[in-house]
Amino acid sequence: MSEIESVGAHRRNFLKSLALGSAAVGAASAGLFTDVATGTIGVPAARAAGNIKMAFIQWQPHTVSSAWSKGIEEVLKTQQTVDYRLLDGQNKVEVQVSLMDTLINEGAAVIFLQPIDSVALAPSIAKAKRAGIAVLTLNIDATEPHAAHVEMNHYFGAMDIAKALGDKLGGKGEVAILNAPPGIIIRDQRTNGFVDGLKKHHPGIKIVADQSADWSRKKAQDVATTLLAANPNLGGFYGVNDSMALGAVDVAKTKGLIGKLVIFGNDGEKDALESIEKGELTGTQYTDVYQQGRFAAAAATVLASGLVPATAFKQQGKLLMPYTIATKETVASIQPAQRW
Fold first, then answer.
1. pLDDT in tens, 162-209
2. Is 132 helix (H, G, I), strand (E, B) or coil?
3. Is the predicted pLDDT of residue 46 greater than 80, yes or no?
4. For the chain, what are the domain ranges?
5. 296 with 269: CB under 8 angstroms?
6. CATH class belonging to 154-286
7. How big is the CA angle at 293 (ends 275 and 326), to the nearest 5 degrees?
8. CA neighbours within 13 Å on the CB side: how many for 47?
9. Per the CATH hierarchy, to which homologous superfamily does domain 3-151+289-320 belong?
């Protein structure tokens, strides 16, 4: 049996078990699979020898990446011919680069990647692409074009957060941003969306501070405490992720400011939703990240079962996830099974 015939047999097995992923494929395919060139299909020999290999290289263990992986597994486990692994990048670029090299050498069909550094991982993505391996990034894009990118709606969601926060403040006052370190694309998207949202909806609100809290709840506690001391008229915080927003909530509880400070986060993790229900956190942008993982896995399944090599894509596909601004008025609509 030739190499292509062998992989074709795997393809037929894939197509017998696509029921779970079909709905997600329908939703995602318009954005992910446009303008695929025809031509010779190259499939590494290692891929044709057995089960198709797929792996997700996360930044580091976190509730978000764990939920993505669960969604990915829900789709891939039904395919019967996929070996899937979740790998820990340990918050180190060099570890992610090493894991990329290992997967390339093993003949992986698809690599899901949450890049720590959008620029530093670009050479590894280019190397995978030359090997015919499709790379799908989750949430954090890379400077090297690849098969597809599936992300939360960072910019437009942050604009809606700005509107909701401003509404709670009555359209005036002072706010501070608890931010991530520079150099990460989603930091800029979530910050710029919030800034532009205030300009559009609430120009009377002033951002008096924009300080990094390193994505950390504990660091955000220290930063929020300092900012409140320096800005006695501060009316609210925007944390570019939920962990930092919850750090501000911790400080507000200690200082008796719950109900007086307006605090919004971003992501929609379970702890944030529970805090909203308790009347502590004001709101957050919720995204169903289980579904985000399912969409990415459905795209990967189509690529692998359709024998579409990474070199066939003329441009990178992109899919923005739907979202909800969760507040005390809307949080009950997010069902237990959707919480992560």
1. 999 999 999 999 999 999 998 788 999 999 999 999 999 999 999 999
2. coil
3. no
4. 3-151+289-320, 154-286
5. no
6. alpha beta
7. 25
8. 29
9. Response regulator (3.40.50.2300)
